[in-house]
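pinging the channel bc i need a second pair of eyes. not urgent but kinda urgent?? the chain im working w is below, pasted from the shared doc
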Amino acid sequence: MKRKRMIAQGILIAALLVIGCLVCFPFFWMILSSFKTNLEIGSTVPTFFPENPTLDNFNELFADMNFSKYLVNTLIVTLYSMLSVLFNSMAGYAFAKFRFRGQRFLFIMVLATMMIPSQVTMIPMYLLMNQAGLTGTYTGIALLQNMYAQEFGLLMAGATVMIIPVIIVYAIFQKQIIRGISLSSYK
């Protein structure tokens, strides 16, 4: 019995290693290709390792393409996404654990806005953003991102919180608060 279990675990580990290699291969290929010349990348006969390794691609990326601006844009949009997840989680918690006046109406409104396809609202939203002067700004990105991703995140956060007993949530928060208080007193 133990031998069969070890064989099954060995097969599982081997399968997971193969799947892991298949998943990581495109990233490995991308890293190797970053050291190739443009001719070598566009060649009809692909080479696995670069024949003439070069750093010209990195030089072009950092010097000519204004990479720092793209990195800052990515970080700002990521921050907006994180804030959206935070607020969706708080709203989902409120819908799941608290009872308040108008809760049913608000929940129906959230569900109703999910039923409107985003393609229907895309052009009117662009026209509104353009008239408000928000196209091409971080504020416009934040508003659009929250409009098109909020309802689903809110429902998923609420559904997750619904299945977790309240005592576990309070125990987790209490543990983190006590840890924070004890860490702050070690100055």
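so The mean pLDDT is 82. and The CA atoms of residues 146 and 160 lie 20 Å apart. — does that match what u expected or am i reading it wrong
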